[in-house]
Amino acid sequence: MKKWTVVSVMSAAMFASTAYAGGHLSCQLHAAEGSALEGQPKVTEFLWSTANGAANPTGPIATSIGVIDQGKAVGSLALDSAPIQLPPELGGLVHFGQAYDYGNRVALAYLVERAEDSSALPSQVVLMLDKTGRVIASDLIPGDAEPAPGQCRLIN
C-alpha cells in the first residue's frame, strides 16, 4: 500500500514539474518563457471592480478562446457565459489585472479579494485556461504574504 502511495505522489510531482517546467506560472509570464508560453501574447488590461468609483470597469475580455467575464456568482469567472471551474482557493472579488492571449490558451493575472484577504491586501492570482476554459495551471500569492521562491508579482 505504501509503495503505491509513493509511486502516485512521485508521478503527480513529475507531471506537475513537466507540465510547466521552469518555475511558477507567474514567473513564466513575467519572463515570457516556458514551453507552455511560446510566442508573444496579446496583452489586455482589465478593470472589473472599483472601490472608489474613480474609474469605469472595462467589461468582458475578448480573447481567442472566447469572451472572459465575471460569472453570475460573486467571485466567479465565465467563458462565453459558461462558468469556469476555479479551484476554491482562487475565488473572490476580482479587482483588475491582465489577460495574456497565446492563441489556444489564455493566462489571467489579477488581484482578487478572497474571503481570507482584506480589501487593502488582495491576493494575486495567475491562471492558465485552455481553449475549453479549463484551468490547466494556477499560481496564488496571498495578500498578506511575500511571494514564495520562484513566484513573481505581476500586478501592483
TrEMBL record:
Superkingdom assignment: Bacteria
Signal peptide: 1-21
Organism per entry: Luteimonas flava
Protein name, per record: Uncharacterized protein
Keywords: Signal
